[in-house]
Every structure is written in structure tokens, then in C-alpha cells.
Write a structure and sequence with these properties.
By secondary structure, this protein is mainly β. Helix content is about 5%, strand content about 40%. It is built from two helices and 28 strands.
């Protein structure tokens, strides 16, 4: 990917899902707690770093990871944040965090060569173990995802013309590079975007999807065997430029997915910034009413089959029909969004967003 395309990677309440979706759809943009409608409520972090990595554990617990090697976590709903950054990591750019609970998490640092690293904590960030350091100067890791507490994958931009996939079967304690024989060839100029920790996502025990941009078309790759073999499909999101493509994916099950993206450059139009799939990513259909601008993060609302949120520098959008139509419900800047649900509707639902200048917020009624 050209230097322009690398910019974004290197610089850069107790409601059930259905009730939340209905309330949000009726809410005006920038609604606040006083109006009785759900809205993002800032949870000050006391820092100005950019948090592109986010993991929602519950309504009370979340992790964020970002620039300057910063990792924070909260266990009281964002009232206070504990700085649990790994020692000596100030030069690293964390772009993804995957949390198993309030004490166990894995973070990914991006960059060329040895800048790409994976670290794990088992004690809430009191200590960290580096479990992977990239030694190939051609590799650049963008995202990591876990299918369960043991099995996870991480992806690098193409090496020798194919995306490189790391695999773990022990919760991120050890990693191995998977064979590339089952990976389709990358397009010229194609790569992933480390914008929100959502360029590689999974659903269920074996299915994983990879989002691309920068090439002639923006594509979504799918594996049903934990990364050994992949199929590829074109999305409807425009590419053809290093700054354009699919930036984030979300699958609520192995069939129903949403892709968001566009052109991340300020002021550039993104007329088809969302697409939907009902067949596990084999085909994609353009949203009939997409978000009005580039979006870098997307998440399904727990306990809902039709509601999801998409976020980006110019706002938050809501869909209540599975991604076909979107409505802007907030105009604040966020890079990523993640939701966690309790064991049933209304029990512990927590949706969080994070982004530039230390911004973190939780969805409030």
C-alpha cells in the first residue's frame, strides 16, 4: 500500500437490543440523558491518546488500547480508569484489544517488522507477556480476533502476494503462521486497515472474515476452518484508492454480516459506506440508505436480530433493519464501537465507543 494508504495505520443501562433500537431510532442527534433517550455519555479517561482498540466486557467493564502504548481498563462503568499499559511500550501503536473478561486480554501493536507485536495479560494488566513479535520486515499486522477463549487469529497485509494469518489455540499464549496455500492472491495495492480492530472478525467456533481496501475493489474474505482456507467476495463499498475500502465488519451469526468503510480522508465523499450480507459473506448488497460519510467501526446490538451501530469521525449511525437503512443519531467523533450483553435481554447490555483525544463513551438511557 502507498504512503497515503498507510497513514491511517501508522498515525492513526439495561435495555434489551430491540427496546434500545426503537428508542434510538426516535432519538434526535446529540440527545442527552436529560431527554430520557439513549445517547453516548462520555467517560473521561484523563488522556489525549487515540483509542482505536476497544473491548466491551459488560456494562461495567471495558478495555481500550491506543497510541503511545496505552491500555486502560474500567470495572465501574467508566467512572474511573486504570492505566495498565505494558512497561516499555510507549513507542508502540496498539490498534486492537480482545478481552476474555476483566482480567484476561490480548493487545495487538501494529507496524512494519518488529513494531507488530501481541501481548497478553492474565491479571488485569498488572503484568504483560509478549507472546508474538514479527521478525519479517515485509509483514504489517492489522487486527486480531478470537473465536473462543482458546482459538484466535491475527492478520497481516500481504506478504509474497497473500495475506498472512497467525493462529493460536491456547488463548494467545503462543502463535504460529498458517500455511498460505488456502489464501487467495491479493490484488495489487490491496491491504487491511488498522482503523478500529474490526478488519478481522469471527462468529462461532470456526468462521472468520477479513476486510480489505486499497485495491481495484474492496473485498471480504471468509474462512470456515479457522483460517486455513479462504473464499473471496467483492463488496459494494468503493475502493480503487489506497484510502478507500472496507474498514470494519460485524457478523451477528455465521450468515448475517455488515460491512462499513468508505474514504477516510477528511472531506472526501463516501457515497456507499455500508453493505450487508445474508449468506455468510458470499455476496454483498449495498445499503439502500447508507451512512452519510466514512465509517470505521460497526457492532450489532446484543439480543437484537436487526439493530446495529456504526461510528466514524463525523458521527454515529443506527440501523434497525439489519443494515439496509441507516440514520445518524449522534455527531460526535468515534473510531470504533463494541457491545457486550448479559445472559438475557436487559441484563447487563453495554455498548461502548472510543476514538481520538482520549474519547470513550458508553450508551446511556
Amino acid at each position: 500500500m502507498t504512503p497515503m494508504g498507510k497513514t491511517i495505520r501508522t498515525v492513526t443501562a439495561g435495555l434489551c437490543g430491540t427496546a434500545l433500537a426503537v428508542a434510538l431510532a426516535a432519538a434526535p442527534a446529540q440527545a442527552g440523558p436529560a431527554t430520557g433517550t439513549p445517547a453516548w455519555e462520555p467517560k473521561p479517561t484523563g488522556t489525549d491518546v487515540r483509542f482505536r482498540g476497544l473491548a466491551a466486557v459488560s456494562r461495567s467493564s471495558a478495555w481500550v488500547a491506543g497510541s503511545k502504548g496505552t491500555v486502560l481498563r474500567t470495572s465501574d462503568g467508566g467512572r474511573t480508569w486504570r492505566n495498565v499499559s505494558p512497561p516499555g511500550a510507549a513507542e508502540l501503536e496498539f490498534r486492537d484489544v480482545e478481552a476474555f473478561d476483566g482480567r484476561r486480554a490480548v493487545v495487538l501493536a501494529i507496524g512494519e517488522g518488529e513494531s507488530s507485536r501481541i501481548l497478553r495479560t492474565d491479571d488485569g494488566g498488572e503484568s504483560w507477556t509478549e507472546t508474538f513479535r514479527n521478525t519479517d520486515p515485509r509483514a504489517f499486522y492489522d487486527c486480531v480476533t478470537f473465536l473462543d477463549r482458546r482459538h484466535g487469529l491475527a492478520m497481516s497485509d500481504p506478504v509474497d502476494g497473500r495475506y498472512r494469518i497467525l493462529s493460536t489455540a491456547d488463548g494467545g499464549r503462543t502463535w504460529e503462521v498458517l500455511p498460505s496455500a488456502g489464501m487467495p492472491a491479493a490484488l495489487p495495492g490491496e491491504a487491511g486497515f488498522a482503523a478500529s480492530g474490526q478488519c478481522l472478525v469471527g462468529s462461532g467456533p470456526r468462521d472468520v472474515w477479513l476486510a480489505t481496501g486499497g485495491g481495484a475493489t474492496a473485498r471480504v474474505l471468509h474462512s470456515s476452518d479457522r483460517g486455513l482456507n479462504w473464499t473471496v467476495a467483492e463488496s459494494t463499498i468503493p475502493a480503487g484508492d489506497p484510502a478507500r475500502g472496507v474498514f470494519a465488519l460485524a457478523f451477528r451469526d455465521r450468515a448475517h454480516g455488515i460491512a462499513v468503510g468508505g474514504d477516510y480522508r477528511t472531506g472526501q465523499p463516501s457515497p456507499r459506506a455500508a453493505a450487508v450480507s445474508r449468506d455468510g459473506g458470499r455476496t454483498w448488497r449495498q445499503a439502500s440508505t447508507p451512512p452519510p460519510a466514512y465509517r470505521s467501526g460497526v457492532a450489532w446490538l446484543p439480543h437484537s436480530r436487526s439493530a446495529a451501530l456504526a461510528v466514524g469521525p463525523t458521527g454515529t449511525d443506527l440501523t434497525t433493519d439489519g443494515g439496509r437503512t441507516w440514520r445518524t443519531v449522534d455527531t460526535g467523533s468515534y473510531d470504533t464501537v463494541d457491545c457486550a450483553g448479559g445472559p438475557g435481554p436487559g441484563l447487563g447490555l453495554g455498548c461502548w465507543a472510543s476514538g481520538e483525544k482520549g474519547r470513550v463513551a458508553r450508551l446511556e438511557r
